[in-house]
Design brief:
2 domains; 16% strand; 8 strands; eight-stranded mixed sheet; alpha/beta; elongated
């Protein structure tokens, strides 16, 4: 059984001034208890300020000044949750790292169970929600639809797993070596390691503040998940194109036969309706292809996943 010497707790923050102080107190209490019981020799709580525009940074400055176990990364702008997590994993110093949301709806008490599984040899431990009772009907409906769709498209993913997970140092190094810009971390970690453990928990409602994951961000996140890991949409477009060509060829044969036999063609419906159908299919196909091209454009430019404005760290 391997021993965990040091662990990094990575907490992305975007306009979380209402909760961040309470979060730090709760996380510190849990980590001090784990340290006293020798479940980890040392720990750090690494906050990633993802371009917050409220008072989050002032609170983080105070936390850093009062707690030698804290570190702060300040990003130059908002890079989104995936970018903030990548920044945290790049700068984490621990033998293992746990990523968790700042609102602590995912219970940090489960970190002890994750460490136990790490000691048993797992490099990847996923936090999985038992249910979605705390979500609205719309959120439950769209989430279930997303997971079902992405599995049909061949993407390996675990239902109801968000971004609460433990990763061992070897896996972190493999992850940081990946060069892709369009990131869907939930699937990326499973593409690196299929030997993982799960920790189940009930997600708590947010006590303060509001979610920063808007409908637009959810849609963009879902598209990244589908288009970054599956070529099935392109294949579907190709199949539809072939079927449309066969249908058009059938229409041409029918038209020629009608002309030869002297039968009049049907009225305007037979002309206008196929035009609408084929035009819709073409626009849909172009839209799907353009999404892939757009992501290729981002990859080719090779812009950084994040930019650091400053790093606050205690030199030991």
């Amino acid at each position: 059984m391997r021993k965990l010497h040091s662990i990094s707790i990575i907490i992305p923050c975007y306009n979380e001034e209402e909760v961040i102080e309470t979060t730090h107190q709760r996380m510190t209490s849990i980590m001090q208890d784990l340290h006293k019981r020798a479940l980890c020799t040392n720990y750090e709580i690494l906050y990633v300020n993802d371009g917050s525009t409220d008072g989050t940074q002032k609170i983080l400055d105070k936390i850093f000044a009062d707690d030698s176990h804290s570190r702060v990364l300040v990003l130059r702008r908002n890079f989104g949750l995936q970018g903030a997590l990548c920044a945290g994993l790049t700068f984490a110093k621990g033998d293992a790292a746990v990523t968790i949301d700042a609102d602590l709806q995912d219970p940090p008490e489960k970190i002890e169970e994750m460490i136990s599984l790490y000691e048993q040899g797992y490099d990847l431990v996923l936090g999985v929600r038992e249910d979605r009772q705390t979500d609205t009907f719309f959120k439950r409906f769209t989430a279930e639809g997303f997971y079902n769709l992405i599995k049909i498209l061949g993407v390996k993913i675990v239902n109801n797993h968000g971004d609460f997970r433990l990763m061992a140092r070897a896996l972190i190094n493999d992850f940081n070596a990946l060069g892709e810009r369009n990131r869907f971390i939930r699937a990326m970690v499973l593409s690196l390691d299929n030997h993982y453990a799960t920790v189940f928990y009930k997600r708590q409602p947010r006590l303060q503040g509001s979610t920063k994951f808007s409908l637009g961000k959810m849609l963009s996140f879902s598209l990244d998940g589908v288009l970054s890991f599956s070529f099935v949409p392109l294949r579907v477009v190709s199949i539809i194109g072939i079927l449309c060509c066969l249908l058009a060829l059938t229409g041409i044969i029918y038209t020629l036969c009608s002309k030869i036999t002297g039968h009049a063609l049907p009225g305007w419906t037979s002309t206008v309706l196929p035009m609408f159908i084929f035009s819709g299919i073409q626009l849909l196909s172009l839209g799907i292809i353009s999404e892939y091209i757009g992501r290729l454009y981002v990859e080719v430019k090779h812009r950084p996943l994040f930019n650091i404005r400053k790093e606050l760290t205690h030199h030991q």
